[in-house]
Amino acid sequence: MVLFMEIITLGNELLRKKAERVTDIDKELTKAAGELIDALHKGEGVGLAGPQVSLMKRIFAVHVEKDIPRVFINPSILETSLETVKYEEGCLSVPGVYADVIRPGAVRIQAWNENGRPFTLDAEGILARVILHEYDHLEGILFIDRLSEFKRKRIITKFEKIRKA
Ligand code: NI
């Protein structure tokens, strides 16, 4: 498959926009889902959302170790655990920087897959973590937004230094 999806990075305003609901899971969207997974693998990441490849639709792909690649279309977060956990995150759109982010430890999510089938998934651990991170992308939220202002400024400075290098 020819890869045309290019991952955009911090500073591109598309990352700050809310993605639109998918109204039809047609051939074109199924194809886009496949390309999203390819771009995720090429970037050696664990999750990639539509807006990160300038596809402003509510779709993301997740592939964590020992699991199958999963596509989530029009996802709804039904429930999150009260318990939160701290875990180090990175993002293909903010390459080279990592920070501890606090999020719920478990999530129940409903979505449609790339074949148009609805499903509900209970996730915890790394899978829950990646799902919550990717869901944020559909809302124009980046993991650095969930840090204290001090830490966010520090990480942006570090990112800009890396980018210039
Ligand atoms: Ni990300």
Q: Count of DSSP E strands?
A: 7
CATH homologous superfamily, by name? Peptide deformylase
Overall body shape: globular
Poorly predicted runs of 5 or more residues: none
Major beta sheet, strand line-up: 1-2-3-6-7
> Which CATH architecture is right?
Alpha-Beta Complex
Based on helices, strands and strand pairing, what is the structural class? alpha+beta
**Bound molecule types:** nickel (II) ion
How large, in whole angstroms, is the Cα Rg? 15 Å
Helix and strand element order: HEEEEEEEHH
Mean pLDDT: 95
Question: How many domain units?
Answer: 1
The biggest beta sheet reads: 5 strands, antiparallel
Regarding CATH, which class? Alpha Beta
* Proportion in β-strands: 25-35%
Helix content: 25-40%
Termini distance?
Answer: 32 Å
CATH topology: Peptide Deformylase
What's the total helix number? 3
Give a verbal description of the structure:
With 165 residues, the protein is an alpha+beta fold. It has one domain (13-164): Peptide deformylase (Peptide Deformylase, Alpha-Beta Complex). 28% of the residues lie in helices and 27% in strands. The strands form 2 sheets. It has a 5-stranded antiparallel sheet. The termini are far apart. Bound molecules: nickel (II) ion (NI).
